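Standup notes
- DV: blocked on the single-chain target, sequence here:
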Amino acid sequence: MQQKEEGMGKKRARPTVSPDHAVVTLHGASREIYGFTPFPLDAPPSIPGIYAFAAPAGAESGQPLHWRLLFVGETSDIGTGASRDWLDTARKEGATRLLVHICSRDENYRRFIEDDLVAAFDPPLNALQRRAAAA
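- DV (later): unblocked, structure below
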């Protein structure tokens, strides 16, 4: 189930899934559907795939709880790549879970999925990364 959010002239899909559910479904900008499994931030699996630092959102206003994506990335080993890159910053921004999509295909395919999700959700830490790379 999804809700649409208007913002900055762009519609973005928001996942409306409780953190207790086993699978979180995210739709990319291409409309492709990706299944993610939530993990505690301190226990990322050592597998190749796409990961997203996520913070719960919506419960404070009485709306259904959903995930707010803070950063989306890809790596050949989520156990080392995700914890190394943006973990501290994501925690400060409210991240409580690491959403994981297992993908053992090559780096180019993982980057395609990463780009698809970044285009759909525009995570704030990805925007920060782009600004830092451009400076």
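- Follow-up: The chain has one domain: 2-106.
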